[in-house]
């Protein structure tokens, strides 16, 4: 075993027999565990610091940077863990390769021992063969036993040679395997050295990171100390600010008191002015006493001069106060300039100086408050100066008035003394205000000094940061130098490897057969590696497909959720459709009931028609009672007029109901159109809102980039130093964008839901506002009445056609009779030669007529019917719209009536043929009266048609009436001639 280990060490190139590959791993493990413990401690400290900084808004930027540092540290620890795992895997592979090498060496040694034993047996066999050959040459004859032994020996020789060849082949294979194993060992050595180098680099990086972490911890401690100090300073400043606010509040109270006092003084002055006016009026009365008190006035004039001198001194003092105020303004301007400079310096500082900025802003706000107080004091001073001017003017007025009212100088003296006391009080207050201003200025100077000290601290912190950056730069230089040294060593190592490869090439030339086998093995290895790479590529593709599959599953889940929502909406819509269908079924039932009632009324109408036919037959038979019928007709016209009015009212109600039905149908159609276009409009709206949200996000991102420009150099450094962290940051940004898009989509969907809810509520309100079932029942009743009336109209139209046919038949009969009368008249004219006799006969016949004929309507009359039967224009307009509905029905009835008319004409012709000639007189009278009867019947029909039909039936009746009136005039003359002939 010792020999095997020595050979293995030689083949592997390990000179140290005490080499232990797990020792470095154990050291690395120990260091890794220590790092884990340190990371846990750092994590705990990080959480504590975050808890302490959670309530403080001023340290928000510091917390953000602190979190970034902690994330970078976590990333580095994660990378160390990954490298540790890779190192463990490589160590395991290394140990496995060493074990396999030991096994191959053992097998090779066993093969060498077997080869040596075989060689010894071969030498023995060769010696035996040589001895046998010598014996043969000596000529000694061989026995059968010897021949057998010889044959056996030959066979054994052949077997041994075969075994030798097999063993040689095995040796060649083993040598090739040994060479492959040596190459694998070399590769593992190279990988091991590379990993050791990487481990060494990682250790160095770890030490550097440890140093950085320690430095950062120190910085953290220092910053925490500074934070505590700043907090204490902020607490003290806040207390000072509160005290100053109390002072300001007190000053404000004092100012309010002063304002109240000023108002009271103004009121006093106004009262004094009023008193002065009263005194001026009294002074007019006291002019007579003025001469006696001129001496007293001179003394008072001297006193006034002294008062003027005093007032001049006071004006000088006020001027001094104005100068002091100007000086204060100049100091304020200088302070403003200094503040501007400080603000410009603050704008150039980094994130750490921003904390100081907040404090300075507080100080600036306090300064502005003080400035406002100064301005308030200024205003008060100006008010005092104005009041002083007013007082001076009043004083001058008083001087002018003293000449006129010397007796009233005593109260003025008292007022002067009061004013002097008030001026003294104002001066005291101004003095107090000046003291307050001085205190404020001193506090302001203190705050400026504190701001300067804080700025110096910031500058010192920046210098420390610069020093640390220089140290980092030096460390980077050292790293570059170490890298150059490493590269030099690697070049030397490659040169040694090239020398070793040359020696290996010389060995390969000596062992050409072994080299060919090696090549084959290499080809196989390359193929295996290729297959492995293909397998790895396929595994990666599988992983990608699995990730894509997961994404697709997520998308499918989202789509399924959307489909569920759409299904719910569809179910709601279907429920609404079902309700509408139920309403339609109800309406259909109502329609069926109306049709049943219509059929009943049709039966009733048929009964009425039969009765009417009977009445018509009775009317035709009772031509003698026409006069009585006229009276009855006149009495019935009044009732017809009342019924017409009622009918007009009903028609108006029907029109209103029709308009309501049309409006409801229009609204229904519009609602259907709106519901059909809702989905498209919602989709368009979603698209437009998505576009708007996308553009808004773009605008916001651009605005944020403009307001907060990206520190490009820091990103570049991060990209060069830690690309994984850079990739993670990019991934975070992409995820943030996706999150923004998702939130926008959620908002859009919420808006869509709200819109749908609003639409649903609007539809509900519309349905609630729609007409109830009572109105629908009324509409149905009116529709039934309408249908009944329309049926009556249609039947009346058929009757009209019948009457028209009868009228045509009567006309035809009258024409035939006219021809006969003409022939008879011509014959009698030739018979009667005496013209006078003929005239006497005609006059006597006319005089002896028992009763006058009824007055017929004239041809030129525009209205064949009386005004009572004219239909109203509203009915004409309504029935004009219903013409198209009745045309089809009228055409069918017209065909039936034509057939009936043909049958009736045949019957009439037969009756005429059967009639005797002796009844010509009575027939002539009947023919004269028949048109009037027809006219009466037509008038009755027209009354009914005016009630039920409209313009169409009325126009037809008018045309027929005109035709009949034209024919009746002709018939009158013919009838008169016939009657004359008869008589």
UniProtKB/TrEMBL annotation:
- Record-level GO cellular component terms: cytoskeleton
Is this entry keyworded Coiled coil? Answer: yes
A Pfam short name: CFAP58_CC
Q: What ranges does the record list as Basic and acidic residues composition bias?
A: 892-904
Which keywords are on file for this protein?
Coiled coil
Q: Where is the composition biased (Low complexity)?
A: 843-861
Q: Where is the Cilia- and flagella-associated protein 58 central coiled coil domain?
A: 370-668
Q: Where is this region: Disordered?
A: 841-904
From the UniProt record, list the coiled-coil ranges: 147-457, 640-674
Specify the superkingdom. Answer: Eukaryota
Q: What is this protein called?
A: Cilia- and flagella-associated protein 58 central coiled coil domain-containing protein
